[in-house]
């Protein structure tokens, strides 16, 4: 019940396309859902996060969509660029407890 | 600027050696974490610490120990390195353990190879 399941494991998208990464969870007590971005040779860094009281959050080309009833949330990257090529991790937490991480998605944007 | 530094970017050790991985943060954060990252398995928590001299086991603590003698420094120790501990090790810190605004800041990682 503590797991966060992330898919796909890898994704190839053409430049200008929309990249979509999905995550699902079981624990309805989770109340914070961040996405982290990791470039090769670097540690992950917070990209965008959402709380379950909103269904969508947008920051530039990055949008989190949240479906509380389905217990799913997803990251959408609009107009994907080669510079977006990275590994993306979703995560979830409850209150002040530690983050539970998804397995990661390696995204490659083809020029 | 927020910074988490790790003592080595690359490390090669022999089976049976004792290995120390050091992590230092300059943000006065209470919480520090050690993860290992393996392809297809994501980030797996080894240990975390919520205060000086305090530690909690994560999901995969076997074969590892930790030390936090000062707030800014968190060390990961492999008592007797084995080949299955070859991995990327990431250190992180955060003001609080989880929840909104409790962003985890990561170091660049140490790629450890055990021969």
Helix-strand category of chain A: mainly beta
- The DSSP helix count of chain B reads 0
Rg of chain B, rounded, reads 13 Å
Termini gap of chain A: 39 Å
Can you walk through the features of this model?
Chain A has strands at residues 4-7, 10-14, 19-25, 33-38, 45-50, 56-59, 62-67, 72-77, 86-92, 100-101, 105-110. By secondary structure, chain A is mainly beta. In chain A, strands 2, 4, 5, 9, 10 and 11 form a six-stranded mixed β-sheet that branches. Chain B has 115 residues and is mostly beta strands. In chain B, 0% of the residues lie in helices and 56% in strands. Chain B is globular. The model of chain B has no long low-confidence stretch (mean pLDDT 93). The interface between A and B is medium-sized, with 26 and 24 residues.
SSE topology sketch:
The complex is a heterodimer of chains A (111) and B (115).
Chain A lengths: L3 E4 L2 E5 L4 E7 L7 E6 L6 E6 L5 E4 L2 E6 L4 E6 L8 E7 L7 E2 L3 E6 L1
Parallel strand pairs in A: 2-11
Antiparallel strand pairs in A: 1-3, 3-8, 4-5, 4-9, 6-7, 7-8, 9-10, 9-11
Chain B lengths: L3 E3 L3 E4 L5 E7 L5 E8 L3 E10 L2 E4 L6 E7 L2 E6 L8 E8 L10 E2 L3 E5 L1
Parallel strand pairs in B: 2-11
Antiparallel strand pairs in B: 1-3, 3-8, 4-5, 4-9, 5-6, 7-8, 9-10, 9-11
Summarize the structure.
The complex is a heterodimer of chains A (111) and B (115). Chain A has strands spanning 4-7, 10-14, 19-25, 33-38, 45-50, 56-59, 62-67, 72-77, 86-92, 100-101, 105-110.
Main traits of this protein?
heterodimer; A: 111 residues; mainly beta; six-stranded mixed sheet; five-stranded antiparallel sheet; 11 strands; B: 115 residues; seven-stranded mixed sheet; four-stranded antiparallel sheet; globular
